[in-house]
Design a protein that fits this description.
350 residues, 13 helices, alpha/beta, 35% helix, globular, two-stranded antiparallel sheet
């Protein structure tokens, strides 16, 4: 059997800089849907430039620009160019993709030094995507952007790739296999990340949007099987506690390495405005910016262990359960697992 492409873990030190939480979308599950006007304002360029220089001086060679929606920042092209000037070799944006339907703008970003684009898209039809994105016409804009970016990747313009990041939720879960086919086959996107919904912000406490893990995992494992036998793309998933995955999957080290996103994600520091940060926990504040390691923040501030986690052998890799999920459904479904993870759950260097 031909197996799926094995993703290599990028070991460059990575930082994600939030350039403002303003957005041109209204996603129904947006984490930043309830923020203040001050938080939505774009980061002043002088401050952004200082962040870029500071992280470069610390030895980071990968930088990502986040929002909200980073493409609405008035000087994003300048920020990308400065990052390249400062020696960053991986320069990425995580975007809803709508502004990149303006292909000239997308090309200016690539000319400035952009090396990777991750587009947030969650449906395979205009009806589903526009409903989830909260904007009529979002589907057409995103498809236009992805087709252009995929073409540029084939020309060598985006050496770190084009990816789609989808939030798996109760509205799109039953369509996952059709969504997978749409991205992998119809659009030819070689990298798909499936993240389980974090029921905060616009989706706070929502059972309507938050499926049970057991229902989501049934669809997820079918997607894994299709990828193994047919698409052979880079497919990873995140936000799924190890114990909700089938035992046969957990006991296959090769599958764990290739599909569990937490196993191969970059070691990432983050910088966002400190105003309004929930769960202050594991972060430091520097000149009005909250700095934290994303893995540590998830594990200690945004997720919690279930009652069964104390006896579980997977805690090295597994970060726990989103706090918001526990508030909705409790922790009765989670069970301790035995020591079956590859290399004790340690992340390989490369």
């Amino acid at each position: 059997m031909t197996t799926a492409q094995e993703p290599r873990r990028d070991v460059r030190r990575n930082v994600e800089i939030n350039v403002g939480k303003g957005c041109n979308g209204r996603c129904v599950f947006c984490l930043d849907g309830q923020v203040s006007a001050a938080q939505r304002a774009p980061m002043e360029f002088d401050e952004l430039a200082e962040e870029i220089r500071s992280w470069a001086a610390r030895g980071h060679r990968s930088v990502g620009f986040l929002g909200g929606e980073p493409t609405i920042h008035p000087r994003l092209v300048d920020a990308v160019a400065l990052a390249r000037e400062q020696g960053f070799t991986r320069i990425a944006i995580a975007t809803n993709g709508r502004r990149l339907a303006d292909t000239a703008f997308a090309d200016r970003l690539m000319d400035a030094g952009l090396t990777r684009v991750t587009v947030s898209m969650h449906g395979h039809t205009a009806a589903l995507e526009d409903r989830l994105a909260g904007v009529e016409g979002a589907y057409v804009q995103k498809v236009t952007a992805l087709r252009h970016l995929r073409g540029r990747q084939d020309e060598g313009r985006l050496p770190d790739g084009v990816a789609v990041n989808m939030v798996l939720n109760a509205w799109n879960c039953e369509h996952l296999l059709r969504i997978q086919r749409f991205f992998c086959q119809e659009l030819g996107i070689p990298d798909l990340r499936i993240n389980f919904i974090r029921a905060e912000g616009n989706a706070a406490g929502s059972r309507e949007l938050t499926p049970r893990y057991r229902d989501a995992v049934r669809q997820l494992m079918k997607a894994v099987a299709l990828n193994e036998t047919y698409y052979r793309a880079t497919l990873t998933f995140g936000g799924f506690p190890i114990c909700v995955l089938p035992r046969s999957f957990r006991r296959d080290p090769d599958l764990v390495r290739r599909y569990v996103g937490e196993y191969r994600d970059m070691d990432t520091d983050c910088s966002i405005r400190s105003e309004g940060v929930n769960s202050p926990g594991h972060l430091s504040v520097v000149d009005g910016r909250a700095h934290f390691n994303w893995k540590e923040r998830k594990r200690h501030d945004l997720k919690s262990p279930a009652a069964a986690c104390g006896d579980c052998a997977a805690t090295t890799l597994c970060e726990g359960v989103w706090n918001a999920y526990l508030e909705i459904y409790g922790d009765a479904e989670f069970k301790a697992v035995d020591g079956v993870l590859p290399e004790g759950g340690a992340v390989p260097e490369a």
